[in-house]
Amino acid sequence: xxxxxxxxxxxxxxxxxxxxxxxxxxxxxxxxxxxxxxxxxxxxxxxxxxxxxxxxxxxxxxxxxxxxxxxxxxxxxxxxxxxxxxxxxxxxxxxxxxxxxxxxxxxxxxxxxxxxxxxxxxxxxxxxxxxxxxxxxxxxxxxxxxxxxxxxxxxxxxxxxxxxxxxxxxxxxxxxxxxxxxxxxxxxxxxxxxxxxxxxxxxxxxxxxxxxxxxxxxxxxxxxxxxxxxxxxxxxxxxxxxxxxxxxxxxxxxxxxxxxxxxxxxxxxxxxxxxxxxxxxxxxxxxxxxxxxxxxxxxxxxxxxxxxxxxxxxxxxxxxxxxxxxxxxxxxxxxxxxxxxxxxxxxxxxxxxxxxxxxxxxxxxxxxxxxxxxxxxxxxxxxxxxxxxxxxxxxxxxxxxxxxxxxxxxxxxxxxxxxxxxxxxxxxxxxxxxxxxxxxxxxxxxxxxxxxx
RNA sequence: GUGGUUGUAGUUCAGUUGGUUAGAACGCCUGAUUGUGGUUCAGGAGGUCGUGGGUUCGAGUCCCAUCUUCCACCCCA
Length: 453
Hints:
This protein is an alpha+beta fold and 453 residues long. Helices cover 42% and strands 19% of the residues. The protein contains 17 helices and 16 strands. It has helices at 16-35, 49-52, 57-62, 85-92, 102-111, 156-171, 184-193, 200-207, 210-224, 229-239, 245-255, 260-278, 343-353, 373-388, 402-411, 422-427, 445-452; strands spanning 39-40, 46-48, 66-68, 93-97, 120-129, 141-150, 177-183, 286-288, 302-308, 317-322, 336-342, 366-370, 393-395, 416-420, 430-434, 440-443. Strands 1-5-6-11-10-9-7-8 form an eight-stranded mixed β-sheet. Helix 1 runs antiparallel to helix 6 and helix 8 (200-207) runs antiparallel to helix 9 (210-224). The chain starts with 15 loop residues before the first helix and ends with a helix. The chain binds one RNA strand of 77 nucleotides through helix 3, strand 6, strand 11, helix 13 and helix 15.
């Protein structure tokens, strides 16, 4: 009835001020990625559903946005009323919006395997869509910034990821965060050691919640998920392991002594720490966290997550190693590792902590203010000269009262105004006003350019 | 997807047990100040109370549906 416009649930517009802040984040991330030799890649917003489904688990399939076929999309359906959604879907939709950037990347690698040189390093900054129920820091359309290396199993990649995380967050002014590191092999090793092999995913889902719901509840959930009392008994000392990374590693080595996989995981973690140290990395914020599990089923080795402390928002970054993601597309044994920043959450965090620098917000440097048609006309030449020197300049387009033009500059946070009237035109000395201090001086166009360059 | 929550001016919010013409602050516009913004003062504009139904003599207020917001679960950036 109402023709008031609205947005789909969980989506947002980004106004000029927000875009300035987002670009500041994006440029920072892009700069770091490129410093480490990653090259940009973009893939379509939509993929064939055959590419997307089955990669994210049953939950993930539910969260995929499907795209209705074009044209008479019901033509292939015989008796639509009798069909269940599950049977109907493949007949009316064959495309979907992408759910993350990693699966399309794997698809790209497989399709272009003869064209790319391995190891292949790419970064990708694009929106993804999930039909989740929105909450704070959780949207239906959001941007991911992925960096992945595929075609090598070198642990240098893992170490470099830690370096990139530190570097990016440092540049953004964040200091109070924790990079959590774990390894799926360690988790597998634990399930073997406690006599619950094959229960890995149940185990992961439960212990992932340790810091959220506490030890008791986790044990309850493990029991609900079918672990034996004996196994649960054996889990307790593992979850209670404390100490610094080195101590945790030593303790786990004893516990996992019988598990080949588990020991391999421990060794990888040690190697990553050692490599990062050799790269002169700051490891003070990196924490070997036994309870870090992560949901995505394709991870097989290292897993990462970043938690910003003292901010009530979910993780701002996650990633890990996957040994066989391209396998489902017919290209087995391609190990890759990567991670992703969530721009939207990073934005919320920086906003909450007031970490956006002033410079990231100023757009126009100078506004030319005029009194009448002749002075406006004169201003056009001044604007052209400033712009030629690369100075972001605006001239007020209407004939308006001075007051209004000043207010405009004020609202837009423009730091300098150049006032042009008959006096200025006669003397060629323009009034150059610092909007913050209110001080004015008479300067020639060249002098103004020098000041602003 | 399950359970709960929210919606009143551009924004943040008041609005009594259902009762006449729905208020405030901030913002916006105009003027005091026709060559000077951010302060002050005076005035002004702006609302089919998310939307659609229902109960009632009467609904912003009660009921139902729907959309939206936020929260918990699930899961995740």
